[in-house]
Amino acid sequence: MAKIGIDLGTTNSLAVVYKDGQTVRIKNSLDSYITPSAVSVDEDGKILVGEAAKDRLISHPKVSASEFKRDMGLRKTVSLNGTEYTPEELSSLILKKIKADSEAFLGEPVEEAIISVPAYFDDNSRRATRIAADLSGLKVERLINEPSAAALAYLDKNGYEDGTYMVIDFGGGTLDVSVVDVFENIIEILAVAGNNRLGGKDFNEAIARDFCRKNELDYDALTPAERAVIYRASERAKIALSDIPMVMMEVPLDTKKLVLTLNNKELISISKSIFEGIREPVRKAIHDSRKKLGDIDRVILVGGSCKMPTVREFIRQITGIVPDTSIDPDIAIAEGAGIYAAMKNKELKDVVLTDICPFTLGVAVNNDLLNDGSQMMSSIIPRNSTLPSSIMKPYSASSENQSKITIKVYQGESIDPDKNLFLGELNLDCPPTKFAAKICDVKMTYDINGILIVDVFTADGLAKTKAFRSNSSVLTDEEVEQMRKKIEEAMLVSPEDEKYRALLARAERVYEESFEDQRLVLQRLIMAFKGSIALRDPIKVQQSYKALSDILDTMEY
Ligand code: ADP
Ligand code: MG
């Protein structure tokens, strides 16, 4: 029985297994090791996951979903074909598919996994990830933080060496920068910073807007379908520019063929603000780690957008360090998760991975200087503290003969408590205390399961304790059971069907993106393919499959 590592990404998901002393990427049923994190419901109610679902985001947007990782742990649903799906359910469908593909690839059951999550994921989003795994039938002993996984992948490849590493993870829609310390066998995250609204998507959009500007079109005034066509061509152009110096985009719109040539220099000039957006998280991560740039031994790049030579060069410029290229940015995190799975299986010597608290925890105190009754935050556990963390701080009376204490607990970075997340309060009596004299100690303990314990100790030895969850929008057991039924009943299309449907989804998307003359050719081939499937004639299916996929390959660069 195998135990695998999974990078459950916002845009793409991957799985890796550790076998015979090395990591092996798991290929999915379409023979690719990358599975887009997209879900779509087919006409007959069956579920498509991955490439076909990604294509259907364009051809069938109302029954397709993506980017639900952003909403993990939030009370939000999307409606697909009249059924509401929570982010946990959608993620569990991705995991269910990865589990099935891994079992087919490995030829043995897969029941356990190590799943990676962003280091800044709070307790809610982590619990949501565990629920998703549980729904998909995977046991998850531990989640691994993405930067720790990247560091593990690097160390596995290059040998375990103490040092301070900066991990820059630039994916489809998010940028995460972490400073990670490796000392003996402990991998400790010192700080994380990032921008959860910056990623490969922004380059696609910048190119799409430039394309429209130069072709005298108003991007915002286009129909969603037209925008999608230009957007996809933009992403293809961007990816091509990672390997070749110049690309020519050709996009059919109405009856015209619109073109744009693009090179990396132009890409830089139209994406200035995206590049500038990388600077701040890098600065903040170093600042929060209490290190200097000079202390960083290696810069490790992960995430698809780090494959862009322009991004690598920009990172070199702002850090003064040539980024390491020994690990593949696409699979580093899945590899790290796979390595960690092997460690937990005792196939490899274990390392200690630490978690951090990604936000500040504190209490509201009266603003003595203003003395106008307004309150401000007094932080007790600063953000980026290594977990578990336990810190105690003394507080003084804010009025003469104060005999009641109210402790309001908040999470967040603002000095103004109202702008932070209120977690709850504790009320207790105390011996009357003079103004400004010490009235109590407040101790906060935050563990790796996201449980915060607040203890208040007064002068006469009274103590009051309360446990808080970092947030209250937790799913009930009943809700989880309902989801389990739904996911168990959800039918993924069979691998054979999937191959066909993925080709059809691709053909339908390309059809939307093509000119009339190409459409005629496509239409004929799509009909022939559908016809051969309906006839269940294996030889004809094979022939028409090949004819259609060959023509699609020529239509898409
Ligand atoms: P996530 O962590 O968000 O799941 P990934 O790390 O897989 O995502 O990154 C996806 C992003 O990487 C997409 O925006 C995609 O366009 C971009 N990408 C993938 N390959 C390349 C490439 N060769 N060159 C440039 N960008 C790429
Ligand atoms: Mg990622």
In short:
The protein has 557 residues and is of the alpha+beta class. Helices cover 37% and strands 32% of the residues. The chain folds into four domains: 2-198 and 278-354, ATPase, nucleotide binding domain (Nucleotidyltransferase, domain 5), CATH 3.30.420.40; 200-272, Alpha-Beta Complex (Actin, Chain A, domain 4); 361-460, Sandwich (Substrate Binding Domain Of DNAk, Chain A, domain 1), CATH 2.60.34; 495-556.
What does this 3D model show about the protein?
It is built from 14 helices and 28 strands. By secondary structure, it is of the alpha+beta class. The protein folds into 4 domains: 274 residues, 2-Layer Sandwich (Nucleotidyltransferase, domain 5), CATH 3.30.420; 73 residues, Actin, Chain A, domain 4; 100 residues, Sandwich (Substrate Binding Domain Of DNAk, Chain A, domain 1), CATH 2.60.34; 62 residues.
Question: Which secondary structure elements does this structure contain, and how are they paired or packed?
Answer:
Blueprint: E1 2-8, E2 12-19, E3 22-25, E4 35-36, E5 38-41, E6 47-49, H1 51-59, E7 64-66, E8 78-80, E9 83-85, H2 87-106, E10 110-117, H3 123-135, E11 139-145, H4 146-158, E12 163-170, E13 175-183, E14 186-195, H5 200-214, H6 224-240, E15 246-253, E16 256-263, H7 264-270, H8 272-288, E17 298-302, H9 309-319, H10 332-344, E18 352-353, E19 355-357, E20 361-366, E21 375-381, E22 385-387, E23 389-396, E24 402-411, E25 421-433, E26 438-446, E27 451-458, E28 463-469, H11 477-489, H12 495-512, H13 516-535, H14 538-555
Parallel strand pairs: 1-10, 10-11, 12-17, 14-18
Antiparallel strand pairs: 1-2, 2-3, 2-4, 5-6, 5-7, 8-9, 12-13, 13-14, 15-16, 19-22, 20-21, 20-24, 23-26, 24-25, 26-27, 27-28
